[in-house]
Amino acid sequence: xxxxxxxxxxxxxxxxxxxxxxxxxxxxxxxxxxxxxxxxxxxxxxxxxxxxxxxxxxxxxxxxxxxxxxxxxxxxxxxxxxxxxxxxxxxxxxxxxxxxxxxxxxxxxxxxxxxxxxxxxxxxxxxxxxxxxxxxxxxxxxxxxxxxxxxxxxxxxxxxxxxxxxxxxxxxxxxxxxxxxxxxxxxxxxxxxxxxxxxxxxxxxxxxxxxxxxxxxxxxxxxxxxxxxxxxxxxxxxxxxxxxxxxxxxxxxxxxxx
Amino acid sequence: xxxxxxxxxxxxxxxxxxxxxxxxxxxxxxxxxxxxxxxxxxxxxxxxxxxxxxxxxxxxxxxxxxxxxxxxxxxxxxxxxxxxxxxxxxxxxxxxxxxxxxxxxxxxxxxxxxxxxxxxxxxxxxxxxxxxxxxxxxxxxxxxxxxxxxxxxxxxxxxxxxxxxxxxxxxxxxxxxxxxxxxxxxxxxxxxxxxxxxxxxxxxxxxxxxxxxxxxxxxxxxxxxxxxxxxxxxxxxxxxxxxxxxxxxxxxxxxxxxxxxxxxxxxxxxxxxxxxxxxxxxxxxxxxxxxxxxxxxxxxxxx
Lengths: 258, 303
Hints:
heterodimer; A: alpha/beta; six-stranded mixed beta sheet; 10 strands; 25% strand; B: alpha/beta; seven-stranded mixed beta sheet; 8 helices; 28% helix; 17% strand; globular
């Protein structure tokens, strides 16, 4: 089993009218691996992520996912019921803006418990215990369990979103600019946390980011996208230290160093 | 009830079809009702018509009533349990004028009962139909604003988020504070909003002998609970569903088992609790039950 990828994307394409967002993209994701997708704005990173998550219908290609039960599902053609079930059990999706991924009118505890309740957990006390455990895991003070997300800082909202996703122990977490919009020190702490969680719970992750620093810290492997195409892939350090493609070179050289 | 009788005596108003709606419209609504009965708890869209009173006053319930009413029916209309409130009186008058059918205030005599916000206290029978006026049929509406998404959630039975709301109730108030419009699962499949009845009435929907029809005019939806259908309120294992209790019994009929309205009597904390179901209360008083504030019983002068 271990010598099979968790997810393999084959020839994925998506266009919006005449605008091509993703052209013939193929890659594999292995258990416990963190794959970074980098590129400039409008290069199709987020579209790719949304296609994989089943939020946008793809035009062509296959998204083969190996489920926990061991069977292979093509998410591009799977029934919506199957996809949605996988999305809330074996997958997680961390949005760039926490307000898109959280229920802002419900307390932190309710946010963390939602997936569990959807799976049929109907014991208030145990839901609460689980919520407290996860708040501790993402370094949030437990006494804020009944507070609304809007009373939290941006960094805490993001951590809450991560806890809410990890509570069902997903096998893959998709993250769209997880540290975007946060200030640098909060970013560093969040990156630390994500790194630890990914390791502790052995989840595979696909992280979309335009920040090469984030990519360098989090990702084992990188994929560089431009105009809807993958221009270069490779191990993170290798790719960043020795970029081959002209665009990657441009990207790496345009990073400000302090 | 002289007004009622005078209308019943004269024939229906000339120029209008029986029960106001034209026959094609009634057939369309009946088809929706049949579908709703076939899929308990499922909201069936229908072409809601404009009625001669505003949305929110029971246009959905009236259209359902108009579609199922026959010449031999005996109609009862209640609003918050009472037969003599504005909404109930005007809807009853409307149907008296438009159909000429007999009306009643007695639950046991009625074959068709249109209700707003209450289920009669007296158990219903297989020969009765209960029509609810529904303002918002979608139980998930305040949790998910998109209609396309809520339909998908119903289709896939994704009802976890409803428990999130109950969780939130407990975390804020220590108990499930949803007091009316309590979410229920119908026949183990569809999540349903039982119109804004108090949760006291929710258990009455379960395995009820009568056919229960729900009409939402503005939202253009009809749904149904057929006779003897399982209706289960959502709850938590450690916070089970409970109905309201009152510190006192009915001040007029001394009932312990009915839904009581609190009436403020003065500005020094004086209050009384009375049955919201007026027919149930007067029937008990006629049978000799006396509450602590009941007037000495005399023959019903109004009749």
